[in-house]
Specification:
Structural class: alpha+beta
Order of helices and strands: EEHHHEEEHEHEEH
Number of strands: 8
CATH class: Alpha Beta
Largest sheet: 8 strands, mixed
CATH superfamily: Gcn5-related N-acetyltransferase (GNAT)
Length: 185
């Protein structure tokens, strides 16, 4: 099964994706834009991680594919809480030359559509490191996500402390945004 966006396709991650996933998992510049801790990853550890995804219904990870480019990044719905119908969302565009071209906006819209219309979730959340201005602008200016709070000095990067910006979106906000855009997907 694939989840079709306007310009992207979300699909399962496959063993053939391992070379790119391994490259991205060891790209210090890329990981400095994302939350969490990141350590150098071996090919074997990357393979084990990928194989471990198949039975995890609470943490879904997708490959982002673009026609003519193939796999360009990953997206996820993690910490899915089926009782409260919530999940956390994240994404990364691994190829820097493909950032800033609208793929991220399409990924966010596609993930929201899948989460709210197919899975029946009612709320999504994400966090962004304060200096990742491009991601913050994509979520808050191009999609219906809103800033819900700031955790001061959460991250330690580049020799200093940085805030973690917390964002969220509800199914109702998504549907109002979708209706205003006239989306038919």
């Amino acid at each position: 099964m694939s989840i079709l966006g306007q310009r992207i396709l979300l699909r399962a991650l496959e063993l053939e994706d391992l070379p790119l996933l391994h490259q991205w998992s060891n790209d210090e510049t890329l990981w400095s834009l994302l939350g969490g801790w990141h350590f150098p990853t071996s090919r074997e550890a990357q393979r084990d991680w990928l194989l471990g995804l198949k039975n995890d219904s609470l943490n879904q990870r997708f490959g982002i594919e673009v026609p003519g480019h193939g796999l360009i990044g990953t997206a996820n719905l993690v910490s899915i809480d089926w009782k409260n119908r919530t999940a956390e969302h994240g994404m990364m565009i691994g190829d820097p030359s493909l950032r800033g071209q609208g793929h991220g906006t399409d990924v966010i819209a596609t993930v929201m559509r899948y989460a709210f219309d197919e899975l029946g979730l009612s709320r999504l959340s994400t966090t962004i490191i304060e200096y990742n201005a491009a991601s913050l602008a994509t979520y808050t200016r191009k999609t219906p996500w809103v800033i819900e709070g700031v955790q001061r000095q959460w991250y330690y990067r580049k020799g200093q402390r940085w805030d973690r910006i917390m964002l969220g979106v509800s199914a109702e906000e998504y549907r109002a945004w979708q209706a205003a855009r006239g989306d038919s997907l």
